[in-house]
Specification:
Elements: H1 16-25, H2 34-46, E1 52-56, H3 59-69, E2 77-81, H4 90-94, E3 98-102, H5 113-127, E4 133-137, H6 146-156, E5 160-163, E6 171-172, E7 175-176, E8 183-187, E9 200-204, H7 207-217, H8 240-250, H9 253-271, E10 277-279, E11 287-288, E12 294-298, H10 307-316, E13 322-323, E14 339-340, H11 344-351, E15 352-355, H12 363-377
Parallel strand pairs: 2-3, 2-4, 3-14, 4-5, 5-8
Antiparallel strand pairs: 1-9, 6-7, 6-11, 8-9, 10-12, 12-15, 13-15
Helix pairs in contact: 1-8, 2-8, 3-7, 5-6, 9-12
Length: 379
């Protein structure tokens, strides 16, 4: 049987069941409970111990609450990286604000600091006010140029939200991503480096912001002996059962990073000599990617060598590869939104591919992918 090789699947470590069983045995199966408190503590310690964490039911919920806490409202503008998944941008629309899309630079594939400043200055000139926030994404686990981006943001006093949904465990100068900006967003969706089935978290050095997020995520119930609401609330809190899965996953996070980085280096060693093929690389030793997904850029050459044909070729062998995110400024739903670009994200969308990268891939499966790619180049 030709077993399918998936892009990225959940990988259990074993301890998850013990935490979930404890939730079951103690009847803590509703939202909140000891596992939620423990998961938040585990994350805080892993991220350096100086940040507060709110465990939520999705990364999208975390980003939405971040925007609310920063006061984003109807008529505001929020700068967002264009090369990302729609979940990075949708919460801006939830608030009635307008996304302002900024293109990537071609080394990290993340937000261009130069275009970021260009966008800020142009929006100020056109609207006579600054954007309310900046959302920068660490694509596939690769750290963005955060020092330069934060310098621009501080120059204009605009808060930065790090979308580190794909980057838990990645670091810049040994500092964990998600802790560099004013707030950070994590995701524990089923395909992420660790999972709670579905889930996310909001991270910040400001405990008052995280306390506010917890309050809003529980329907904004006031602390009185009856149901009273002075704010619009949301049903965004993580369940105690899901958090139990997360606690077990945290025990194997370092191993999962090692396994995904091993996949990357196996691919790189075997495929770097192929004509026109290059990898999404760490700029220098200050940049450390968790390698959630291994991404390659495939320069089209004469004949059939191009990104989409390789994807289809691998699919014929029951191997799942996936095009990189279609940039937000090319999405029909965001067609009217301003965009500051240089062509990098469009080039990446047209020519880059994510290879199977799961931490549970066997050597046989990785080698099969490598052999099929080499066969494709021999066509």
């Amino acid at each position: 049987m030709n077993k399918r090789i998936f892009l990225s699947t959940p990988h259990m470590g074993g301890a998850e069941l013990l935490y979930v069983k404890n939730a079951y045995d103690t009847n803590w199966v509703a939202p909140l409970g000891p596992n939620v408190d423990g998961f938040e503590s585990d994350l805080s310690k892993y991220l350096g111990g100086e940040v507060a964490v709110a465990a939520l039911n999705t990364g999208t919920a975390a980003l939405h609450l971040a925007l609310i806490i920063l006061g984003v409202r109807y008529g505001d503008e929020v700068i967002c990286q264009s090369l990302t998944f729609a979940a990075s941008a949708n919460p801006i629309m939830y608030q009635g604000a307008t996304p302002i899309y900024v293109d990537s630079e071609d080394e990290t594939w993340n937000m261009s600091p130069a275009l970021l400043e260009e966008a800020i200055l142009d929006r100020k000139a056109k609207k006579n006010k600054l954007p309310k926030a900046i959302i920068v994404v660490h694509l596939f686990g690769m750290p963005a140029r955060m020092e330069e981006i934060l310098a621009v943001a501080q120059k204009y006093e605009i808060p930065v939200i790090e979308d580190a949904a794909e980057a838990l465990g990645s670091t810049l100068k040994k500092r964990k991503l998600g802790t560099l900006g004013d707030m950070g967003v994590l995701s524990f969706n089923g395909n992420k480096i660790i999972t709670t089935s579905g889930g996310g978290a909001l991270v910040s050095h400001r405990e008052d912001w995280i306390s506010r997020a917890r309050f809003l995520s529980c329907q904004a119930c006031e602390k009185v002996p009856y149901y009273e609401h002075k704010s619009v609330g949301y049903n965004y809190r993580m369940s105690n059962v899901s958090a139990g899965i997360g606690r077990g996953q945290m025990e194997v996070l370092s191993l999962r990073i090692y396994q995904r980085r091993k996949n990357f280096y196996n691919y790189k060693h075997a495929l770097s000599s192929l004509p026109g093929l290059r990898f999404q690389e760490e700029i220098n030793t200050d940049y450390f990617s968790n390698r959630w997904l291994t991404a390659v850029y495939i320069e089209p050459v004469a004949g059939e060598i191009n990104c989409e044909n390789l994807r289809l070729f691998l699919e014929k062998s029951n191997i799942e590869a996936r095009r990189v995110w279609k940039p937000m400024h090319l999405q029909p739903v965001f067609a009217e939104c301003p965009f500051y670009g240089n062509g990098v994200s469009e080039s990446l969308f047209n020519n880059a591919l994510c290879l199977p990268s799961g931490s549970n891939l066997t050597d046989y499966e990785v080698n099969k992918v490598i052999k099929r790619i080499k066969t494709f180049y021999d066509i």
